Amino acid sequence: MKTSSFNRFVSLPSLMLVGSLAALSSSARADNTWSGGGSSTNWSDINNWGGSPLGYGTLTFTTGGTRGTTSVVDSNTAQNKLLWMGSAVWTLNGSNTVSLYDNGGTQAKIENQSSGLVTINAPITFAATTGAAYGEINAVNADLTFGTGALTVNGSAVNGLKLFGSGHTTTFNNTVSASSKWIGLTASSTTMAVGGSFTSGDIYVMNGGTLKLNSGGTVTTSALRLGGDYGNTGNQNQA
């Protein structure tokens, strides 16, 4: 079959472009898993992520590799989700900010699926301006602690945060700035422990959840609702 000169002109570059994008997408997914193979614990060390710079999406921490289970945010970074897995105790350090945004309708999320404690000593901001109307902090299999890392919720599309973690505790030992944003303890028997200055809109403690004030903890909120529901969350056990 005869091919026009126009088709001959566009076909090869188009195929090359598609192939390049597919390879880039695959590479970005692989490189977002911590391998700990760098010469430092810094996120900017590409050998900690398999040899290529980070792509936008989910950062997954499963095994520590040579650098172990402590990593350092050494430049401001935008991502959708931070996910820890496995069984290790993990620590995230740094003075630079991790800003969490929506990703095609997937809300910004911090999740501990590891059976070991995760401690975050770096600033985190829920900053989405489009997408899902809330962010999540999920202590799925073990506790989560915000140590020296401040938490900010200021994204125009983030109306609040849902806290999950049945039988586990999320602790905030530094400043939480979430003015006019609701905080909901959603899963059964979730505990939120406050050891620093915590400012938010309404706080909803549902499903047998617990709000705990540690030494030095203060809460400034427009309302503390014990057993109250919030927004379009469906049926909640308001005990």
Describe the structure.
- The chain is about 10% helix and about 35% strand.
- With about 240 residues, it is mainly β.
- The chain has an 8-stranded parallel sheet with strand order 1-4-7-10-13-16-19-22, with no helix packed on it. Strands 2-5-8-11-14-17-20 form a 7-stranded parallel sheet, with no helix packed on it.
- Mean pLDDT is about 85; it is low at about 1-30.
Content of β-strand: 25-35%
Number of E-type strands: 22
- List segments where confidence is low: pLDDT < 50 over at least 5 consecutive residues: 1-30
Biggest β-sheet: count, sense, barrel?
8 strands, parallel
Q: How many helices does DSSP assign?
A: 1
Distance, first to last CA: 73 Å
Largest sheet strand order: 1-4-7-10-13-16-19-22
Coarse morphology: globular
Radius of gyration: 21 Å
Oligomer: single chain
State mean pLDDT (0 to 100 scale): 86
Q: Based on helices, strands and strand pairing, what is the structural class?
A: mainly beta
